[in-house]
Amino acid sequence: MGSMIMKVLMLQFLGLLLFDGFTHSEAFIIRRTFVVQETPYTKLCSTKNILTVNGQFPGPTLYAHKDDTILVDVYNRGNQNITIHWHGVKQPRNPWTDGPEFITQCPIQPGAKFSQKILLSDEEGTIWWHAHSDWSRATVHGAIFVFPKKGTTYPFPKPHAEVPVILGEWWKSDVQAVLTEFLQTGGDPNVSDAFLINGQPGDRYPCSKQDTFKLTVDHGKTYLFRMINSAMNNILFFAIAKHKITVVGTDGGYTKPLTSDYLAISPGQTIDFLVEANQQPDHYYMAAKAYNSASSVRYDNTTTTAIIQYSGNYTPSSPSPFPHLPAFNDTKASANFTGSLRSLASIDHPVQVPLNISTKLFFTVSINTQPCDRNTSCEGPDDERFAASVNNITFEQPRIDILEAYYRGINGVFGYDFPNFPPVAFNFTNRTIPVEYRRSMNATKVKVLEYNSTVELVFQGTNLVAGIDHPMHLHGYSFYVVGWGFGNFDKMKDPLKYNLVDPPLQNTIAVPKNGWVAIRFKANNPGVWLMHCHLERHISWGMEMAFIVKNGKHPNAKILPPPPDMPPC
Fold first, then answer.
1. In this structure, are strands 527-533 and 544-549 parallel, antiparallel, or unpaired?
2. Cα within 13 Å of Cα(556), Cβ side
3. Spatial separation of the C-alpha atoms in residues 110 and 159, rounded to whole Å
């Protein structure tokens, strides 16, 4: 086992993990150290300092088994405040170390330390961690591999090896400067200069011939790719030349096998898929590019690449085969792929969809505009400022975290009256919508859920300002995606078509452009839990809100006490 650990650490340092025989063990406690620090990195012909964990980009991978506990000592030796979120970890009864800034904690200040407890429960597959303060997650992120418990196996044939594939985004300028500028001007942020695969842009970018991730495979063997979309502002298409992919999991859970020529993956989402090395030995490109459904929105139209190279003696083709990717604006390709996912729904991995719903919610997710400061003009539509909202409320970040205020009964930090429905009903997806509907209201409000209530939440995309996809992420829970469609949700007809048999279990779901998604979950995890769009510019504009799930009556249904080293506000 000691040699195996050394092998894992060495491969992790090199940026590639081929996992071939990890010994499963009983649930136990794992301790790791994260040192947040500035580190110089060179890409696209220039060098800059970026915020990293342990000097690595992407950051270190965490390895655990189902039901394990991971203790991570986070030391902030950087030059800015930081928080770390464990994306896809439900953290039963333990919202204190979930990580979102001013929702469940105040930030870890430079020079400070916070020991974060990660309580794994039913997660199995690939999840991840990332910064959850400002735009730091552009470079502060990494994978979490959760293996099956001892005595259990994958619900598919054991792969020869396992490979992390982290899709990312790179700006030549400082990302915090990008954030500051677009918030000041009220316009869209500057687009990135490159997309990345495992921290490398690929040989189609300037000065990047050597900066290409390469994976050597043996003919006839099958590989498990563990993919994470850590990009800031883009759903991405991905494919491998002349190779099909078979999806077997998403967001820390298993799916029925889905074979496809490509995939679409939202920011925040993870997808596990099998690739069989069954082609003639050669070098084959894998590639990713942005999907952009809004013609008025600027986006990075570059393509990142990596290479699968078969082992053996042969002369590679020139040029290497390149995959076909859907068009950048192919909404059907994106939505149909996501809509084809199904839960495994087996004896060992059953589906538990709530059938009797006690709480029905209808949330519009919109791009809005707000007036600029007096005597100034902004770069948004009609010289106004971009904003974003849920049910027409643009989230206003408090200066003390909501969890502490709720737990200690501190008044004046937030309101309890987040609405169940939008304030005005109209044709949400009409081609033209009255300008006066663009205005949103700034507020800090939460929706309170009773413990063990069963929730159906319909996300309705709108065509306010610009219709666009919204990958919505819920902290503290996974949810069943029971339905989706284009246009306005029809409360009489659409529920008749819900999938209540094997809907996918996810924590991030893309609401399609001018469409809707229906999710269900049981509110059995007490605490304060953020919900937001995972397009970073949209959360910066205010497309977020929080749920408070009340304590149950049993002692095991109540929020755990806060740790003693919570960062001060």
1. antiparallel
2. 0
3. 42
- Residue 59 DSSP SS3: coil
Reported pTM: 0.94
Phi-psi region of 399 (alpha: psi -120 to 50; beta: other; left: phi over 0): alpha
The C-alpha atoms of residue 136 and residue 103 are separated, in whole angstroms, by 17
Q: Which tokens sit at 57?
A: 């980009």
Query: Cα–Cα distances in Å, from 132 out to 105, 127, 442, 534, 539?
Result: 11, 15, 21, 11, 11
In the chain, what percentage of residues exceed pLDDT 70?
95
Contact 243, 197 (CB under 8 A): no
Q: What pLDDT is recorded for position 11?
A: 37
- Two tokens, residue 90: 């439900």
Question: Six-digit token pair at 149?
Answer: 């418990």
State how far the Cα of 131 lies from the Cα of 81, in Å rounded to an integer.
10
Nearest to 186 by CA among 545, 542, 546: 542
CB-CB contact of 170 with 43 (8 Å)? yes
State the Cα–Cα distance between residues 252 and 271, nearest whole angstrom: 8
Angle at 125 between CA 121 and CA 131, to 5 degrees: 80
Residues in the chain: 569
What is the pLDDT confidence band of residue 27, given thresholds at 50, 70 and 90? low
The dihedral over CA atoms of 506, 511, 512, 514, expressed in degrees to the nearest 10, equals: 160
- Half-sphere exposure of residue 489, counting CA atoms within 13 Å on the CB side? 24
Reading the block at residue 340, the tokens are 């084809």
Exposure letters 195-228 (e unless 16+ CB within 10 A, then b):
bbbbbbbbebbeebeebbbebebeeeebbbbbbb
- The contacts of residue 35 (CB under 8 Å, 6+ apart) are 53, 54, 55, 75, 77
All residues at 6 or more sequence positions from 268 whose CB lies less than 8 Å from its CB, including other chains: 87, 229, 471, 473, 507, 508, 534
The 8-class DSSP code of residue 336 comes to: H
**Strands, sheet with 253-260, edge to edge from the N-terminal-most edge strand:** 194-197, 161-170, 222-229, 270-276, 245-250, 253-260
Could you tell me if 267 and 241 are in contact, meaning their C-beta atoms sit under 8 angstroms apart?
A: no
The whole-angstrom separation of Cα 119 and Cα 3 is 27
Assign 377 a pLDDT band (cuts: 50, 70, 90): confident
d(CA 177, CA 209): 28
CA distance 16 to 366: 39
**Distances 340 to 213, 376, 456 between C-alpha atoms, Å:** 29, 47, 21
Q: What is the distance in angstroms between the CA of the first residue and the CA of the last residue of the chain?
A: 43
* Mean pLDDT of all residues in 239-247: 98
Q: Give the integer Cα–Cα distance in Å for 84 and 91.
A: 13
In three-state secondary structure terms, 329 is coil
- For residues 126-135, give the mean pLDDT: 97
